[in-house]
Structures are given as structure tokens and as C-alpha cells.
What we know:
With 189 residues, the chain is mainly α. Helix content is 57%, strand content 0%.
Amino acid sequence: xxxxxxxxxxxxxxxxxxxxxxxxxxxxxxxxxxxxxxxxxxxxxxxxxxxxxxxxxxxxxxxxxxxxxxxxxxxxxxxxxxxxxxxxxxxxxxxxxxxxxxxxxxxxxxxxxxxxxxxxxxxxxxxxxxxxxxxxxxxxxxxxxxxxxxxxxxxxxxxxxxxxxxxxxxxxxxxxxxxxxxxxxxxxx
Length: 189
């Protein structure tokens, strides 16, 4: 558990993180990328329940209080915290992603299965699988790929050598560094 941010509520965590990373250009780019992802999801056709499932899975079910906003309300709160540090652009325009990559992400999403018991706030694996597929098909393939990596880790879904090769191929085609696959490296059989 290397989480080093604390605060009384999720908005304070976002504020604290943004203040921490905004000190250099790499950190400001991280803020802009989060802002882009937030805007893509806010502008998407996804239902609030789908956004909530994806965000909670990507956060590894980090504990939140019962009064924490869900779905678009949560994303709007993040957007509000990022705006003062320049993390929100006018639109969340997604870069073009090859349709073959979308199909590959969708194939890997269909193999997502729950192995580990989820602590805290379980979200059914089917809900996350379907939300990842909708992001790939309707929003942005690269964002769907990142959500898929988090989902595999959250559910402990085993990854065969051939599947890992497919993950690596997609990751490389999207321009990600080798670090990106560390999220699922321990799941390879």
C-alpha cells in the first residue's frame, strides 16, 4: 500500500494529489490526462452506474464514505478540483484508435472473470466487463484498455501467456511504456 495521500473526503485527495504533482511539466501532463479522461467519461453515453463501476474498479475499491458522489457527480467533483490547476480542457476529444485495437480490447474484456473475492464494495464482474466494452466501442479504446488492466487486477483474473502477448501488443501499439503491464504481470500463468 503505497498510497500517500490523505484527506477528509475524496475531493481533498484529488486536491492534494494535484498540488503534489503540479510542480513540474510531467505532473501537469498527468493532471491534463486525468482531466481528459474525466471529460471523455462526462461526455460519453455511459450510464452513471457504468461510470461508477469503472471508477471504483480502477481505484482498487479504495474506501470511500457512504455520502461520496457516484458516476457523473463524482467526475464533476474531480473536474471542479482540477480546473484551478489547468487539468480541464474544453473537450475530452479522444485520439483516433484503430478499430482492430477496439476489437482486441473487447476480446480480452470477454475473458474477464472474478477469481478474488472483492473487499469493501463489490461490483459484479459482468457490470465492469460490459462497461469496459462500452468504453471501447463508444468512448475511447485506449481508456478502455487502461480500465481493463485495472479490472483484471481487481478481480484477480488469470492471464495466459498468449493473452499477455495480446496485452503487450495493444500496449505497445498505444505507445505505453513497459510499466503499464506491471498492473497484471503477477496474474500471468
